[in-house]
Amino acid sequence: MSRSASPPDLDSQALSGVFYLSLLGLMFFALGVTVLIPIIPLFITDELGASERWIGTATLAVAFTAVMSRIPTGALSDRQGRRQLMLVGAGLGVVAAGLYLVSTSVPVFLVARIATGASLAVFTTASKAFAADLAPPRRRGEALGLNNAAFSLAAVLSPLLSEGLKNAVGFRAVFAFYGVASVLALAITYTLPRVKPAFSTSAGAGRDMRDTLSSRGVWAAILLMVGLGAILALMFTFYPLLADRKQLFEDAPGVFAAVAMGLGLSIWSLLDTLVEPVAGRISDRIGRQPVAIPGLVLAIVGAYLLSRATSTFPAYAAIAIMSIGWGSARAVADTVSQDVIPPVLRGMSAAILYTSFDLAIGIDAQILSTLIDGADFSRLFTTVLLMVGIFGTLGLLLSTRVPVYERPAVPIEEPEPAEPVKVPALHD
Question: Which one has a higher pLDDT value, 199 or 388?
Fold first, then answer.
């Protein structure tokens, strides 16, 4: 993924305070969503008394709803503004939390999952485009890496918080926390200034979608993310079950025993938080492919090592390697999808990329759930390794020498003064 020349002063442009405030809102939103991850499989089997096949269905419900929500969100954010859609996404999170709190059956629970999927799709699609709008072109990789890192930073603490709340109080305490975090995200997002999208005459969302998909760079990013989707399905859908079935943490030191599984998710999120901004910044300097290639290799190596792990510290080491690889490759895929299109299509590009990603995760979760045989996860891991290798390689091949759109980012629309300023006329 080559980089074309850009004016030297772009390198020195700082990311704005508004950009960092948007990251704070994203972090609270992510804290609410990710606090659910460790408990959902156990809530299905232990609280609702449903079979294991509903675990894959619960993930598919989120992914399918996200798929249906992202394209309209991208189109609307390109026309109406990013902030408005982020407010809708956070509000849907509050609704979803209420539904979880009253879930006593699978149908109600699945409605809550659908609301979560819509919330996740709307908020993160608009947030991604918002971050790209505010970033100078030569800091776009870093800015999108920071956007991803804000989400991951929340996920550092949320698994420990989730497991602790569930063990101390119960599942409902986790759902209540999800609601509180969503309210905080809503409040912070409300304080953001409106960003006026760069609008040009268009035939509508369908034309915007076709224009976006005409870019080879967008397709390269999609293939990379489809491959990485198998890693995320493994880690965030099947890892809790894997840890329980294979008793990975039976030898965990006493002080960590109660949260050993959650600590693995925290290790993943902490390293992802640290890696993505660095990987994005390095890719700004040396190119996208030199960062994506070792990232994919590390993701595959980490997944293989996790398949062989039988105790606590080898499992943590495998998770760490997998996270470093995932974060490096994901930062590149995100940036490539924004490199190659003009500002007016940024929301649509983010929507298409993460629609593909959500769909891949949902389909992967449903397929992989059929490959588990008791405590035997060998077929599941083999399938994951093949998916990452095949789709990642195709994405890398397609990403060679893609053109980069280098025009300046969309400026913030300054609020109008409450009172018009009267300037006295000048007289001779």
Answer: 388
